[in-house]
C-alpha cells in the first residue's frame, strides 16, 4: 500500500450516547492519508459529535489511530471549532499560549508563531488583541493555531459559518493549501458548494446515521438514496 493511502484513523462500531439518547448509531469508518472528508447533514444530524469523537474529545471504544509507517508514530491531530475561543490577549500571546499548552519547546515558540501567522496572512496583526479581529481573521487565527502544530490530521467544525463571501474564500484558500501540503482533514459544512470545491469524499449523516459515504463526484452526480437526494434538492423536511 502506498503512503498516500495509509490508514490514519478507524472507527469500528463506534456509537455515541449523550444525555441518555443515541446521538450516533454504531458506525464504521476508515480515514486514509490525504483524504479531504466533508460531513454533510441537517442541523442536529451529528456532524459536530462525529468530529469530536474522531478527534478523541468524546469517549469512543473502537476508535483506532494508526501508526504511520513512514513517521513511526500516530498522526498528530488538531481541531478548529465553529466559534474559536481566544483569551483577551494579543494574537501573538494567544498563539504562544497554545504552543505552551501543546508542550512545544519554548525556544521554538517565536519562530513557530511567526511562521504560522505568516502562513495565514496575520503577521501584521500579531500585536492586536484577538478580540479585535474580524470574524474571518479570527477563523484564520484558529487555523494558524492548528497549523502551528503541523497536524497530520485536522478536524474543522463549520470553519466558514457566519463569514461573508470574501472571508469565506480566504479561509477556503487556506484549507485547500493545507491539503496541498499533505494534511488530511475532516470538515463539517452546510455549504454544498464548499464541499464540492474542497472535499475528496463526502459523508452524509441523518439523525446520527451514515446514509451515504462516497467520493465527492459520485456523491453529487449519482443517486445516493431518497433522503440524500431530497437533501441535495433542498427538499429535506
Ligand atoms: N452534550 C449533549 N447532551 C445531549 N445531547 C447532545 C449533546 N451534544 C449534542 N447533543 C445532541 O446530539 C445531536 C447531534 O448534535 P450535533 O451538534 O452533533 O449535530 P450537528 O450535525 O453538528 O448540528 P449543527 O449542524 O446544528 O451544528 C443533537 O440532537 C444534539 O441536540
UniProtKB/TrEMBL annotation:
Listed Pfam families: ABC_tran
SMART domains named among the record's database cross-references: AAA
GO cellular component terms listed in the entry, alphabetical order: plasma membrane
Domain ABC transporter residue range list: 9-232
Coiled-coil residue spans: none
Gene3D superfamilies: P-loop containing nucleotide triphosphate hydrolases
Gene Ontology terms for molecular function: ATP binding; ATP hydrolysis activity; transmembrane transporter activity
Keywords of this entry: ATP-binding, Cell membrane, Membrane, Nucleotide-binding
InterPro entries: AAA+_ATPase, ABC_transporter-like_ATP-bd, ABC_transporter-like_CS, ABC_transpr_LolD-like, P-loop_NTPase
Designated name of the protein: Tungstate transport system ATP-binding protein
